[in-house]
Fold this protein.
Amino acid sequence: MTSHTDVLIVGAGPAGIAAALTAHEHGLDVSVIDKATFPRDKCCGDGLTTGALRLLDRLGLQPATVASWKTCRDVVLRSPSGRTVDLRLPDRGQFAVIASRMDLDAALVRHARDHGVLVREGVGFVDVTRDENYRVTTSDGVITARVVIAADGMWSPVRKALQPDRSTYLGEWHALRQYARNVTGPASSQLYVWFEPDLLPGYAWSFPLADGRVNLGFGILRGSTRKVGDMKSVWASVLDRPHVRDALGATAIIDDKVSAWPIPARVTSATLRIGNVLFVGDAACATDVLTGEGIGQALLSGMLAGDAAASPNPGADYERDMRKHFFADHRMSQILGRILSHERLARGALRVIDGGDWRREKFVRWMFEDEPRASAFTPRRWHRGYLSSPGAY
Ligand SMILES: Cc1cc2nc3c(=O)[nH]c(=O)nc-3n(C[C@H](O)[C@H](O)[C@H](O)COP(=O)(O)OP(=O)(O)OC[C@H]3O[C@@H](n4cnc5c(N)ncnc54)[C@H](O)[C@@H]3O)c2cc1C
């Protein structure tokens, strides 16, 4: 079976759906394929930053369609010395939300379908060749397309098909996730980030979900003193630390299932496009190298690709727009990451942040990507409501 479309999108995660909705809005004929059937899990912290929320708002996703959606205002940071800093996000709009990927991604797929986008689940990408158009072989037949958007995640089978000789890339971070239920300690409503001295420059987290569950985990930077092979045993020791147990409360039950996954964060040196095949989200290594957050970046790169698909030169326009929106922020995150990798500097940074209400309020908004990381250094992105406008929704 052979069919034709203007834009074929491989992957129906946040990047793929954002690309599909945007290209569809331009009047293009769009098809999305995903090898999974939804709802499907994705190993993730489930945290939505202000940046991600603003984009979901712009795409028209309604929070009520995501069952586990939980708005969070209270944030607790713990420095390597054990000092804690309590931060509060404003209550005008939503600045931080936790929503399980099982629910969020399925809601995005439904939302795209409701807008007339064709999403075919259980259809895997197999190969791509180019003649006049791209000719994509799937597990279900052949689709030809003028533009292909690869939203197929960290391992990007599309990239592998087009660059078969590249050595295996394992990502900048590796992160582990586990859920806990019956949480009755303060972590049931507050978001915790623990800068444990033995995990730096990585950190551990607990993010509150609806119904007394939390998403727990930690990430380590590849090449640091911590090895990926040690993660399970390190994690057992982290869960046993008194401040972690106190946050979760005595009744917390940690689920058996543990998952871990790489985080690709090198957008400035990644392949962003090959001809008119555009790589977005994790396939473009677009996560924040400081925090490992990638949903907002997936949505933004997807939207840029959806816009570029409507132009006469999709590949060149997309590459230009990615540079403009991502490169300065990536470099800024790299610099901050180097600071956080030193225990003394990380302690000092938290002391500075804790120096007054104004600093705490602005920092917590910046931390949650209310504005792009390096916007202070990129005047073209300055605007009147900098770190003072209402949140999303
Ligand atoms: C442990 C961990 C915690 C994290 N925590 C956070 C967090 O709290 N907040 C945050 O913002 N980010 C977080 N991230 C990063 C975030 O999960 C990713 O950046 C984000 O999921 C990228 O979205 P995406 O759409 O690019 O890719 P994905 O969400 O990975 O979607 C890719 C899609 O492609 C499909 N696909 C793959 N191969 C094929 C194929 N051959 N054919 C068809 N379809 C295919 C997959 O089924 C999948 O649906 C975390 C990551 C990890 C590992």
In short: Residues 10-16, 33-36, 42-47, 52, 124-125, 151-153, 157, 175, 177, 217, 261, 263, 281-282, 287, 292-296, 298 surround flavin-adenine dinucleotide (CB under 6 Å). The first strand starts at residue 2 and ends at 10.
